[in-house]
Amino acid sequence: MKIDKAPSAVSAVDPQTRRQPVRRELAEPDERPQAETGEGGQSAFQGAKRAGGYSVQLNRQLTSMQSAERFLADLGARLRQLKLALSQQISAGRQGLGRSEHAIRTALDETNALLEDRSGASAGSLDASLRLSLNEPVRTRFSIDALTSPEQLRAAGSETLVFRLGNMQAEPMVVAIDESSSDEQILRRFNTAFAPAGMRAELDVHGNLRFSIRETDWQRHGGRVGVQGEGGLLPSKAAFVAVHEERLLDLPALESLDSEQSMRSLLDAVVKTLDRIARLEDQIAQRKNEIRAFLARHTDADEQRWAQDYAQKVFGLMQGARSDYAAVTQAIVSQANLNRFAVVSLLS
Question: Biased composition, Basic and acidic residues: where in the chain (predicted)?
Fold first, then answer.
């Protein structure tokens, strides 16, 4: 059968095909995307891919914050039990531990167990000082007794310090200090030497020198730092130095609570920690609401845009379609009689 005129091909519409959402920054919610024509279409496609990654990042942050909330809720419940037991014991007015001993011991054990499992229970979103970390792994912050401040380093004169993590056979990190070094120069030299190991040096609000490293790396190295000096700040023989990890709450052993003063000191620390937890929970809730509102706003806009484009595409196909089945019949018959020799003849 000879076909005088081939029918126009009609592409099928995939109802599951959806456009990727166009990225819009939080700081510029009214910015309109450019038209997807020519080179702009490629830019819009790349922007859509970035927007998809951005949404994934926000959803991961939501998941991390939910884990942090659960951990904070559990920690708050245990600290309130400890606060109640301590208050009852202090109100009793007796020296040493009385009938509240069992309640205090239980609360201490449960709280310590939860703090030990902080990294896993919070999905790695909270450090030992209950700082929320959403964009990078949590870090362990610590100080070194012999290196407390830039002033102490300058006062010792010129000295070269060799740092090692974990064991004395580890890769050395060398820092040269002299009396003319400024605070910025000291930090720069520390951070340049520490960069391969992922360590950092910084000054706190009081101008004291603090060091930090990823918590997983700190645990892998056993929480030990070896330093070798030249006999000024530190001995010329390499040795592990005393470090003090920063923690929001460091619970004492039950045996050390042998006076009302020691119990009041612990009670004050518990109250401060509960206040810190309450503030952090408020911050997390506010941030979660902002992220959810952003995702909902842009998801709704994308749904409407996709539905409109899909409807226009389907309507256009229906408008251009034949009203009878002639085109379909011709296509079926042509395909049924199509063979290799016919194709070769047409192409020759």
Answer: 22-34
Report d(CA 83, CA 71) in Å as an integer: 18
pLDDT per position as a tens digit, 71-107:
999 999 999 999 999 998 888 766 555 667 888 999 9
Give me the helix-helix angle, 39-92 and 260-320, nearest 10°.
160
Residue 198, CA distances (Å) to 183, 211, 212, 324 in order: 20, 11, 9, 72
Q: Is residue 311 part of a domain?
A: no
Q: Which of 34-38, 137-141, 276-280, 344-348 has the lowest mean pLDDT?
A: 34-38
Q: Structural domain of residue 194, as residue ranges?
A: 139-245
Instruction: Answer yes or no: do 263 and 240 share one domain.
Output: no
Q: Cα separation of 246 and 224, whole Å?
A: 15
Is residue 14, in this structure, part of any structural domain at all?
no
CA distance 82 to 75: 11
Asked if 175 and 100 sit in the same domain, the reply is: no
Answer whether residue 319 is part of any domain: no
The domain that contains 153 carries what CATH number?
2.60.40
